[in-house]
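Support case: uracil complex. Customer-provided input:
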Amino acid sequence: MSAFAAVDIIRAKRDNEVLSNDAITWVLDAYVAGQVAEEQMSALLMAIVFRGLNEAELANWTDVMIASGERLDLSSLSRPTVDKHSTGGVGDKISLILAPLVAACGAAVPQLSGRGLGHTGGTLDKLEAIPGWRAVLTNREVLDQLESVGAVICAAGDGLAPADRKLYSLRDVTGTVESIPLISASIMSKKIAEGTGALLLDVKVGRGAFMKTRERASELARTMVALGEGHGVKTVAQLTAMDAPLGRAAGNGLEVTESVEVLTGGGPQDIIDLTLALAREMVALVGIDVDPAEKLADGSAYRVYRDMIAAQGGDPDAVMPVAAQREELVATRDGIVTSIDAFEVGVAAWRLGAGRARKEDAVSTAAGVLTLVREGDIVEQGQPLFELHADDEAHLALGREALRDAFVISDQAASPTPLLIERVAKS
Ligand code: URA
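Agent response - structure generated as follows:
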């Protein structure tokens, strides 16, 4: 007979008691093995949302999640490893540029990524817009590509932190995603199991992010940095603004096109600035003394991007498909654009067909939104603000509706939000 009963552990957390290591290990292992019922784990997760986990409980919870699966061993690589994880935003195609850029500086970037759900896009969905590109690789292929190309973006295999996969699906349908310890354990268990030596966390703050306030984002960042450092991964977090969409494009193929623009010397300034700021942090984390701006300007990052796409079966020269339905949304008055709401633009891109409501849904390659103005721009009545792209009229109508309240035009300019908000490192 087991030394524990799930109901006692639920009651203990409900009453704000500290859970022992043995209790946490038992309940997570038993849940993964199917011996703790979904309703019991749901109740425990909800108790954690309200009561939290202290430092020791969180470290233990994370350890058990890591131990539920395999750990990649990247120690045979000739280059130092550094990864980046973003907590998710709208128009966030930074990984597509950053991974090859940091590899061009001399590091190996093992970026195991996910697909999008709801209003935020997923890196794999964007890259899958490239004909032939393959998201699923074996561990051997990951290691070989890291050695030969220096960067790999692929799906996290089923073997990495399987406890998180089961817990995340449950949290998604029980209103228990928004918990700092549960988010931290979920993200960091996968990153630690992936085997990277260093990690930069891009913690998004604002209307289009999970964390709406700087205080909550800062606490999440500090918690994840402490977990990473506690597991021997050099970890730094950068809080960055997600009030307005990043760049112009939100939508899978549209974001690939914009990423290539940046890699070939053009593209929106906010994307260039954020990518370079994050790249500087990443090379510093692994002690490489190279200026990423030079590697972007001299075409080295673009060459690595092409190799990275080709190594996974993709055609780096493929032109992204053009949507069958396109329409502009225009300004209804003269004035200054004081707000473009990342959340509303993300929802519009999703409704246009770029995102999915359920994990098994397919996404459109061509659908999405181009935001044609920036906050602070002076516009005239009738000037196009957004370009909507959809595969059919029904999706176009949904996107049009979602974008209606996505912007504000005023007579007075608002003060601009800085892109980089706060840096969090080991204290
Ligand atoms: N991303 C994750 O991987 N896990 C969470 O809990 C939230 C965002």
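Residues 137 and 154 are 7 Å apart (CA to CA).

Case will auto-close in a few days if no follow-up is received.
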